[in-house]
Design brief:
The chain is mainly beta. It has two domains: 64 residues, SH3 type barrels, CATH 2.30.30; 257 residues, Porin (Beta Barrel), CATH 2.40.160. It is built from one helix and 21 strands. The strands form three sheets. Strands 6-7-8-9-10-11-12-15-16-19-20-21 form a twelve-stranded antiparallel beta barrel. The termini are far apart.
């Protein structure tokens, strides 16, 4: 009798243990599907990529044995695509923290010649206003820059020219803008330049040269605008006096422009950046068809032309911080210095802060 009872208890225990195993297996099959390991490249919504072997996929998350950081879970809502690749296709150039994105194609204000990839679109929000830049095709960037009051409004174009040497790249850029609501859009201006970049994204140097111009008072509309001119007028007695006259037409301000940009990665998430621009302007006040003039007292005066040389220097050292592929913040302790041939020199600070966002 005792032996029969033991047999019954043994069969009951065995049955319950087997049922538990079957239930666990069934539950596991419903929640997690384990696939054969396959090497893939996963593209995320923030445009970053992960490379590795898929260990499991339960429909909500993918467990990836990644080349970059080991085992990670990826939410499938954040995944754009999963592409199978061969082992020889893996590139060692990928940096998961600071990949080659559109942020690295510029310094503070100026840009460099690193190739721009298609759909590497980004926006920048500065203290003075917003920017948005699109890349419809490889190597071409099209953007709009403005202040928060839409004065001025600037169209920005850049075309990069890669070479067989990854440490040397060329580029062309142009800015063309209007004064916006100020002066009823009558003022036009532009900056056109060529540039060459040496180095890679972690450390690089860019040299640029171009020409800038700005229509001071609607000359492009052939308006007759004049300005008071303070010059030296010589009376027949030989004694010079300074008198104002208003017969000199204003001209567009044209100046050669030069720039230098340098960037060096100093830590895992920080990059040191220095940006500098120099505008060299020389203006000669001319008096067409006027050799002499009669003042209000009837005395004849001789007007002499004057030449004014002026240089504007922007110097912008600062830092960029980027801990995610889709976002970066940078600031600069910018300053402006103005020098002219009449020793009327002045300098003043213009601190800048910029938030970059990819979309």
């Amino acid at each position: 009798m005792k032996l029969q009872v033991l047999k019954v208890l043994f069969f009951i225990a065995a049955y319950m243990f087997g049922a538990q195993i079957v239930t666990s297996q069934a539950y596991g099959q419903e929640t997690t599907v384990t696939k054969e390991k396959e090497l893939v490249r996963i593209t995320m919504k923030d445009r970053s990529t992960k490379t590795g072997y898929i260990l499991s996929d339960d429909g909500r998350e993918v467990l990836l044995d990644s080349k970059e950081v080991g085992h990670i879970y990826l939410d499938k809502n954040d995944i754009i695509s999963i592409t199978k690749i061969e082992a020889e296709e893996i590139e060692d150039k990928y940096d998961p923290v600071n990949p080659p994105t559109s942020f690295n194609t510029r310094y503070h204000f100026t840009t460099n010649s690193f190739p721009v990839k298609k759909n590497e679109n980004y926006a920048a929000f500065n203290l003075y206003g917003p920017e948005v830049h699109f890349s419809p095709i490889d190597n071409l960037s099209v953007g709009i820059m403005a202040s928060w009051v839409a004065t001025p409004i600037v169209l920005a174009l850049k075309y990069t020219i890669p070479t067989n040497n990854e440490n040397i790249n060329f580029g062309l850029g142009t800015l063309f803008g209007t004064s916006g609501y100020l002066n009823a859009f009558n003022n036009l201006g532009g900056l056109h330049w060529a540039m060459v970049t040496f180095g890679k994204t972690d450390i690089n140097l860019t040299l640029s040269a171009g020409i800038s111009y700005f229509d001071i008072d609607g000359i492009s509309n052939n308006e007759a605008s004049y300005q008071p001119v303070i010059g030296t007028y010589f009376f027949p007695t030989g004694s010079p006096e300074i008198l104002p006259y208003e017969f000199v037409k204003k001209k567009a301000l044209v100046a050669p422009a030069f720039s230098i940009g340098f960037a060096a990665k100093i830590s895992r998430t920080a990059t040191f950046i220095i940006d500098g621009m120099l505008f060299v302007n020389k203006r000669t006040d001319t008096y067409p068809n006027i050799q002499s003039q009669t003042d209000i007292t009837g005395n004849t005066v001789t007007v002499t032309a004057t030449e004014l040389k002026q240089q504007l220097l922007y110097l912008m050292p600062g830092l960029r911080f980027q801990s995610r592929p889709s976002f970066a913040f940078q600031f600069s302790l910018a300053g402006v210095s103005i020098f002219n041939s009449q020793n009327q020199n002045q300098s003043f600070p213009i601190p800048m802060a910029t938030w970059f966002l990819r979309f």
